[in-house]
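#struct-help
A.M.: can someone run this one for me? Single chain, 148 residues.
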Amino acid sequence: MSQQQPPLQWPPPSLEVNAEAIVNECEMAEMTPGHNRTLLAPIHMAALLYLGETTHARHLWRRSLKHEEPYLHDWWMVGQCMILQKNEQDALQRCASHPEPLLTFAHQVAERILTKKQQTKSASPITNNNSNMAHVVSFMETTPWNAP
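D.P.: on it. Structure tokens below:
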């Protein structure tokens, strides 16, 4: 017997509890005629960005262009910065002026982006150290392309 999950509180107070469930709830509401989910598109966008799902966020933006939902443009600016690997702080600052729960989401997305950048930086085997770069260049110049 599978356990049934409790219904999602709307609007959700946090992305950290279960962002995937928020995305699923938003997608189901989007397909339901006459849904009464306030701030649906910006919450959906925030949850996608929190998960790093920039391709899905872009698709949401393109689907929502005619609806002109409040706050969605600011969240899409964060998504654009993520895709283009630009500094997201200015765009997130605009989102931090939104009402709750979007204000909380802006802080959570900012923390998630910062954490991912730090993880990527620490996991990178190549640093700006010239000796490391020289080793990589040397390896690339001396290793045949068809090496196993």
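A.M.: thanks! The chain has a mean pLDDT of 84.
D.P.: also worth noting: The two ends are 49 Å apart (CA to CA).
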